[in-house]
């Protein structure tokens, strides 16, 4: 016969808190901090200045040339920056992981510190070097006696692209370095002893191991580049208008809050869609 329950066991069962109760506090915090402001943005996007509820602001924004131009600029900058980060990050991570040199471990640790830097700090450093009155132009004018230096690309889309690649490359290198640390060095030694050239070793041994980290890091960089605001603002590239910059322009400069909220909703939808794709790719490749 099973032992009889003690007199205190029913009382303990009665006092047991249901599991969903513990989920209420974080859900409440999430609702107040994130969902409620998001709901206000969505509500404002369908609330034209004339009053009432209408999707007319969406039609007006989608029909505007400024929105289409900002969307195109945002996409090509994000894709270009992601490709640049993947190529540069892969090369630098291989050098740090497989080429012994003094201070290699310190450089690897610096990558972790670099991830904590704000984006505007990197842009400011580039301005000090390549700005109109930066170091590179200063050296050029001192040597040649010219009135102006040749480096004026920071205020162009190429300057924004350079700044984004510089800032976001460590976000690709970090997972790559973690993946390379798990790679058995015996595989490289065996491939080398069998006569495989470095390019073949990279293509057939290192690259397959790096694909999950490349997919995860590249997807993350793509999402962050789509939402980058500080780099575009601090480079002073007046001809470069991305979706975040368009939100700022509509809300702060033009006081057109419905249009700003429409652009924000579109930006959020793209970001959430890409994040979902990032999660799906991460699961499939095992990252």
If you had to describe this structure to a student in words, what would you say it looks like?
By secondary structure, this protein is an all-alpha fold. 76% of the residues lie in helices and 0% in strands. The chain contains 13 helices and no strands. Helix 5 (104-114) crosses helix 8. The longest helix is centred in the N-terminal third of the chain and has 34 residues, at 65-98. The model has no long low-confidence stretch (mean pLDDT 81).
Task: Give the DSSP E fraction (strand runs of 2 or more residues).
Answer: under 5%
Structural class: mainly alpha
Reported for the largest beta sheet, the result is: none
Low-confidence stretches: none
Mean pLDDT: 81
Helix percent band: over 70%
**Over the alpha carbons, how many angstroms does the gyration radius reach?**
26 Å
Family: Belongs to the binding-protein-dependent transport system permease family.
Transmembrane segments: 20-39, 75-101, 113-133, 153-173, 210-237, 257-278
Main location: membrane
Pfam families: BPD_transp_1 (PF00528)
């Amino acid at each position: 016969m099973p032992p009889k329950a003690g007199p205190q066991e029913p009382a303990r069962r009665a006092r047991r808190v249901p599991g969903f109760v513990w989920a209420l506090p974080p859900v409440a915090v999430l609702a107040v901090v994130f969902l409620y402001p998001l709901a206000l943005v969505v509500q404002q996007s369908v609330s034209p200045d004339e009053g009432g509820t209408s999707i007319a602001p969406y039609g007006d924004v989608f029909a505007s040339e400024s929105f289409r131009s900002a969307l195109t600029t945002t996409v090509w900058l994000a894709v270009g920056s992601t490709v640049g980060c993947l190529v540069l990050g892969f090369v630098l991570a291989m050098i740090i992981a497989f080429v012994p040199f003094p201070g290699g471990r310190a450089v690897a640790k610096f990558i972790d510190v670099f991830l904590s830097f704000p984006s505007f700090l990197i842009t400011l450093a580039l301005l000090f070097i390549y700005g109109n009155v930066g170091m590179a132009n200063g050296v050029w004018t001192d040597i040649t006696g010219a009135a102006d230096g040749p480096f004026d690309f920071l205020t162009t889309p190429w300057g924004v692209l350079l700044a984004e690649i510089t800032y976001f490359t460590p976000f690709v290198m970090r997972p790559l370095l973690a993946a390379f640390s798990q790679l058995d060095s015996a595989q490289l030694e065996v491939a080398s002893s069998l006569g495989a050239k470095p390019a073949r070793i990279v293509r057939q041994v290192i690259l397959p191991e790096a694909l999950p980290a490349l997919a995860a890091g590249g997807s993350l960089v793509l999402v962050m580049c789509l939402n980058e605001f500080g780099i575009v603002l601090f480079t002073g590239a007046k001809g470069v208008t991305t979706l975040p910059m368009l939100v700022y322009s509509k809300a702060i400069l033009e006081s057109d809050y419905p249009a700003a909220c429409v652009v924000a909703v579109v930006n959020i939808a793209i970001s959430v869609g890409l994040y979902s794709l990032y999660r799906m790719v991460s699961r499939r490749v095992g990252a």
